[in-house]
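COMPLEX REQUEST
Ligand: cobalt (II) ion
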Amino acid sequence: MDHRTEKLMAFLDASVSVYHAAAYLTGILQDAGYTRLSEGEAWNLTAGGKYYLTRGGTAVLAFRVPETTPKGFLMTASHSDRPTFKVKENGELTGKYTRLATEKYGGMLMAPWLDRPLSVAGRVLVETEDGVQSRLVDIDRDLMMIPNVAIHMNRQANEGYKWNPAVDTLPLLGGADATGKLQALLEEEAGGKILGHDLYLYIRQKATVWGIDEEYISSAALDDLQCAWGCTQGFLKAEDGNSIPMLCVFDSEEVGSASVQGAASKLLESTLSRICAGLGLDEQVMLSNSFMISADNAHAVHPNHPEFADANNAPVVNGGVVLKFNASQRYCTDGVSAAIFRKVCQKADVKVQTYCNRADIPGGSTLGNISLSHVSVPTADIGLPQLAMHSCYETAGVRDAIDLENAIAAYYAGSLEVDGDDYRFV
Ligand code: CO
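STATUS: Structure written out below.
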């Protein structure tokens, strides 16, 4: 197996929650010599410096200051969260069995969550002698299951079934005497009394590579950890261009991005302002010479259901990176940003496919147009083609993931020249 695929799989397996995904990425940045910045302290930025910051434990921003005066920012945005179930407050349901009370986080396919070993991971706030501390927790064992109702009792199961998240998807944790045991387990792992939590279910199945030529990869959260990974790898590998390369991984995309660590926050805007102020750069001039790639996975044409795809813009898995278009600007790619991204991919020897919704099927939304409302720069919406989006176990292409790393490395190493409304990328 290609070592790049192995590294992607290690990241996917370690990312049992949005918090663990962000921690894995910051670990990589730390190992690569990036200095952690705190939003609550003054920044002392120097030429040649490499920096990162986090917000909320789930959003990660990283950038490098070139030795020469930068012309603008070259940015990518992806997201660290995935559709899942969140554990509610007072999360135990008692009776003949003990179940966990959960609610939906994001718009998931619900049926795939049933009859699979599950566990719980996330962040807890623990009371310590030094005050309240945030700690990651992961109960690393097969802990829960959402059992299906037998076909004999639910004869409609194969004829279309309406799933009720208040009833059908509550996981079974133990018998009647299991009350309080999960709380005790979590407090033992966290090392103290828990005062607050953000805990999510995750499936226990690891990432795998499969197919007759081992061309497919399946895992939880390929949307959008596959893009977050490709952008991070491209960012770290890229040679210096004429701009400040900037990696953004936001949280909360699956619930509309409206959180302090989401793309609808002022996180990116204020970070760019602080970088410009710290380096004595004219922010408006910098922004006028900047570009954004919004990288979030795209729908590949389904092998059994090609009818859902647009006739001429139906990406296939392992056919290359996808450029997404939408006239209503849910994807912000336009002629300019499409041309620039195609140029990037030409340089990287990466194939580009295009995606449009069928004109009679409304599609999803993503990060680009939300980020634009704060940082208004030309944006290309791209992604990797995948199947079963928002299932708890998704499928994508081994080759495409490597293509994205190469395309993003070429992007960050490039030079953007803006002359009025004309753009050149070399
Ligand atoms: Co996504």
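REMARKS: DSSP finds nine helices and 22 strands in the chain. The longest strand covers residues 118-128.
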